[in-house]
Design goal:
Number of domains: 1
Strand content: over 45%
Shape: globular
CATH class: Mainly Beta
Number of strands: 9
CATH architecture: Beta Barrel
CATH topology: OB fold (Dihydrolipoamide Acetyltransferase, E2P)
Radius of gyration: 14 Å
Length: 103
């Protein structure tokens, strides 16, 4: 099941740098359907009574991330998965970008 997530009332901060998604068997970088490398971005999410950490997969490296760097997440989708007796939720976004500080 794929569920879009309204990110309007949630603030996101990086929990660390983006890391390449690697193929489990070959250890080669995984690509999306357009040939762009996929990255996992660890994020802290907070707002409207929630505080959690998630990892979001995105096409393309997100440069300049360090802990607590504020980011904007565009078109966040949660997808449920099940493999044998294991199950969970994975997250994918069209874009993750740094939030520019207002002076």
């Amino acid at each position: 099941m794929r569920l879009p997530i309204d990110t309007g009332s949630v603030k996101f901060a990086a929990a660390g740098p983006a890391e390449p998604v690697l193929d489990y068997e070959t250890r080669a970088p995984k690509m999306d359907e357009h040939g762009t490398a996929l990255f996992n971005v660890p994020l802290f999410a907070a707002g409207t009574g929630i505080k959690d950490s998630i990892t979001v997969k995105v096409a393309g490296d997100v440069k300049g991330l360090s802990e607590f760097t504020m980011v904007k997440v565009t078109n966040l989708i949660a997808t449920t998965w099940e493999v044998g007796s294991n199950h969970g939720v994975s997250f994918r976004a069209d874009r993750i970008e740094l939030v520019k500080a207002n002076n």
